[in-house]
Specification:
With 139 residues, the protein is an alpha/beta fold. It is built from five helices and five strands, in the order E-H-E-H-E-H-E-H-E-H.
Length: 139
């Protein structure tokens, strides 16, 4: 079973996405902000049960999504995670944030993005894109 973290400060959006992802059979955890997501990521990694996929909102109080992704990638680097085994990260964004997202994709920090409100077809395509690379073994 693949393990997913939803990072979203809006309860309704997080719950809707959780319901959709559970239909794929994913084990879903939720974090309400960027700081919480980084702490949860580190804890699960250290427990040898890392997240396979993260859905990260951009705009949140405190540490925003882009900063949280940066901290997650730094942690993976400090722990010698090979690029092919990095956790897949999908950013959730409003239409106006596409330039930020595209820049992040080009920098190799995220796997893809979803626009809000979430389009089910787009969600399905991204999940299919991510599933095969997620079938990896952790030591």
């Amino acid at each position: 079973m693949l393990k997913v973290l939803i990072v979203e400060d809006d309860f309704v959006s997080a719950t809707l996405l959780e319901d959709l992802l559970e239909q794929y059979g994913f084990m879903v955890h939720k974090a309400g902000n960027g700081s919480e997501s980084v702490e949860m990521f580190r804890k699960e990694f250290r427990s040898k049960t890392p997240y396979d996929l993260i859905f990260m909102d951009i705009i949140m109080p405190g540490i925003d999504g882009l900063e949280a992704v940066k901290k997650i990638r730094e942690f993976e680097g400090q722990n010698s995670v090979p690029l092919e085994n990095e956790t897949k990260i999908i950013m959730a964004t409003a239409e106006g944030d596409k330039k930020i997202i595209l820049k992040s994709i080009l920098q190799g920090r995220i796997t893809g993005y979803l626009t809000k409100p979430i389009d089910l077809e787009q969600l399905n395509e991204l999940i299919q894109k991510c599933i095969n690379p997620l079938k990896r073994k952790w030591t």
